[in-house]
# Entry
Amino acid sequence: MVTMLSGAAIMDGAILMVAANEPCPQPQTKEHLIALGIMGVKSIIIVQNKIDLVTSEQALSNYKQIKAFIHGTIAEHAPIIPISAQHDVNIDVLLEVIQEMKTPSRDKDKDPLFFIARSFDINKPGTKIKDIHGGVLGGALKQGILKLDEEIEIRPGLRKEFQGRTTWEPIHTIIENLMSGGTSIKELVPGGSAGILTKLDPRLVKADSLTGNLVGLKGKLPQTYYEFTLKPKLLERIVGAKDEVLVEAVKKGELLMLNVNSAATIGTVIELKKDLIHVKLRIPVCCDIKDRITISRRLGTRWRLIGYAEIVK
# Structure
């Protein structure tokens, strides 16, 4: 669930996969559709997969279950495409519908804001020092334009320990190359996933260590929060679990999983006020005060979505 929430933060639309040989909805299907609604992802395509494993009557019955499930939701008018990925049935239709999805408009005149979804080292073992490339940041540009040779800032940045106190320091580097769709480009505009090749020491980006950070021009990024006050809006029931149970109020001392943009962090509830909770973060996040935060609670061995929140301060 945490991975889904982080990934969906940089997407314009979503494909909701349903198996034709299983009753619909499955618990995870319900959870993901609610999550998409909370995150504001409105462009949805429903794919009814594995039609090769059922009869036409069973496929039709499953289709009716899907229609009943999405009635009254953000996906009520979403196209439902029956496919067999195994036998390449209707994949051409699916691709056509994806191409017809409306791309949201974005402001290129705003300060650039790039969500990091991946960070990695492209150097092979044994590469000579003179041939080493800097670290690569993968993700999506939400707004603005990034250009070659610009100096960029990465927040929250790197964890530092000093005199028993933990802080995060922003990282500064230069854009050496920009890649989109396997092609090198001179400037990056919003829309689609992209890679930023930097002058960063490759050790700083290994194993997606910078995932969840934001990239922007130096001094132009939003605030980094180590703690904040949230106004939560909780769901009535926990979805995705075997037995749907009522969502209990947030408790003082409780640990919550918080997702904002492509970042995920654990927050400890240190204070409760009327309709507000104050949360201290294990890993800080860089975000705008207007960004929506999804809240998940530990249930058994998994985190389950229980609602969302807005930052008050």
